[in-house]
Amino acid sequence: MIGWTALVLDHLKPVRVSLLVLAIATVVVVSVDQAAELFLIALWTDPSAGRYLGLLASAALTGLASWYAARNAYRLRYPRWPALQDARAAPLRDWIPRVLGAAVPLLVCIGYVVALAKLPHGPCGGDNPCVQRSWRAFGLLLESMALIAFFLIRRRVWLAMSRRMPALRAPGARPSDENRVWRVRDLGRTPCSIYAGVIALNILLTIVIAWRPEALDGIGPLAIVLISAGFLCISGSLLCMVGDRRGMPLLSAMLLLSASLHWLHLNDNHRVRQYPSMSTHQQPSPPPPDTRVSFDAYLDGWLDDRCAHASPCPVILVSAEGGGIRGAAWTALVLARLTAAVEPAGRTGAEPLFARYLLAGSGVSGGSLGLATYVSLLAQPPATDAGTLEARAQTLLGHDFLAPTLANAFFVDFTQRWLPGAWLDDRSRALTRAWESAARQQGLDAFAQPFAALYAPATSGAAPVVPALFFNSTTVVEGKRFIQHPFQPIATPQRQPWTAGLDGSSWLDPRVPLSEVVLNSARFTYISPAGTLETRASNPPVPNRLQLVDGGYFENSGATTLLEVMRLVRTRARARGQSLRFIVIHISNDPQMTDFVDRHDPRHPLPLYTTSCPPAPGGVRDRVVGEAIAPVQALLETRSARGEYARVQLLRALQPDDADPARGDMLWHFRLCPGDYPIPMGWTISAPVFTELDRQLRQQYPLAVMGQALRQQLTPTSP
Question: What is the spatial distance between Cα 714 and Cα 232, in angstroms, rounded to a whole number?
Answer without folding.
Answer: 59
